[in-house]
Amino acid sequence: MPRSDVFHPDYQPAPYWWDAWKPKDEQPTDVPTSTQVAIVGGGYGGLATALELNKLGIECVVLEANAPGEGASSRNGGGVSGGVNIGKSITGSSLDPESPRAHALLSDGSDAFATIENLIAQEGIDCFWRRSGRFVGAWTPKHYDSQAKKIARLNESAQSGAYMLPRERLREEMASDFYHGGMVVERSGQLHPALYVKGLIDRVRARGIPVCGHAGVQKITRQNTGWLVKTARGDVEAAEVVIATNGYTGDVTPQLKRRVIPASSHIIATEELPEDLARSLIPRNRTLADTRRILSYYRLSPDGRRVVYGGRARFTNAGPEVCAPILHRFMTDRFPQLKGVRVTHAWSGNVAFTLDALPHSGQIDGMHYLTGCNGSGVAMMTYLGTQTARRIAGVANRTHAFEEGDFPDHPLYTGNPWFLPVIGTWYQIRDRWDRMRA
């Protein structure tokens, strides 16, 4: 039974975003027998690929195992970074942060932000888009110093508009003294993730592109003229195949599955708060995150009346009744004034990590792919899908940075992230030790 001190009587084990639009496909579109490009995955990446291909005059079909948009595209927190998370990946990898490639990655991260912002404006997608900025709280003074060293690079390469906020000014960003200051990134935004994917589906279908739900791909076979894609609702021949399954990559593409680490991210939404309390919590209405290894991210709902709080409550596929109380505790650690506020929604979705902590796109075994956004998928999957379409059409004027370099795998990893609970425990210990020392 859900705990009465955490869960509201009207609690739902489903995304809060689905109150506005729930993915469904009551009359699935028939799978065509042939097309130029078969796109596997009906989320941001696949839909952005389809939209751009259509603009370039190339026929395509989108194949989705469930209802279109049912995966992470309607389950995430709705934060849209402007390259800052790419910078975090760089500093956590073996890549020299001062190298030309690091500059190119940050620059392309900045382009991803521009891509999604322009697409929303050009297509008229009503998804509560706003450039609200982001605040990343420093878990320790050492983390604050590390953030300060990134500022110049982020502003030069990603046009982040970033600056440091010392601890004594923390309440300018949040009604709490929980962090040791932190970094503000002005070039960042937020949206309603379910309404954004709905907008993409609507625009794709309005162009006559088949978006076929409940058409899970079972096998992809190379043919002389291209590919035969076998789905649960019929086969389609295609000259090109795009894999845009990201955190839901499976056995159909084992060469990608062993390069992507799916991890559950858990999210809760609170009951409606008094307007003055809600407004006081995050006075500038930014998306908030922190520098802990066990990441938390949170924001106000688009109507400004709830807190939407996400993070790694468990490194396993535990249900919301297990994970929601953990996230509730994290939330009230940061905002003690929310003790007694209950949860109306709790859910999870898969994030795709990679072994080098960087997104990747390109071709593998002759198929195009885009994957591994490491928590930056709202803008990045939109961007990688757009760039993949341009590459297929032969109109890309340069190779973007996420196509360069090796896409690493490991001989002991075949796609089953058995090691995540061990890593999660180790990260928790290190986070606690760092905080105690601070």
Characterization of the model:
By secondary structure, the chain is of the alpha/beta class. The protein has a single domain (7-437), classed as FAD/NAD(P)-binding domain (3-Layer(bba) Sandwich), CATH 3.50.50.60. It contains 10 helices and 19 strands. The chain has a 9-stranded mixed β-sheet, sandwiched between helices. Strands 2, 3, 9, 10, 11, 12, 18 and 19 form an 8-stranded mixed β-sheet that branches. The chain has a two-stranded antiparallel ribbon with strand order 4-8. A hairpin with a 2-residue loop joins strand 10 (217-223) and strand 11 (226-231). Helix 1 packs parallel to helix 5, helix 2 runs antiparallel to helix 3 (100-123) and helix 3 packs across helix 9. The chain is globular.
Task: Set down the secondary structure blueprint.
Layout lengths: L6 E6 L21 E7 L3 H12 L4 E4 L15 E2 L3 H8 L8 H24 L10 E4 L3 H18 L3 E4 L16 E4 L3 E2 L2 H14 L4 E2 L4 E7 L2 E6 L2 E10 L10 H4 L2 E11 L4 H7 L5 E4 L5 E5 L6 E5 L8 H15 L8 E12 L5 E5 L2 E5 L5 H17 L26 H18 L1
Helix pairs in contact: 1-5, 1-9, 2-3, 3-4, 3-9
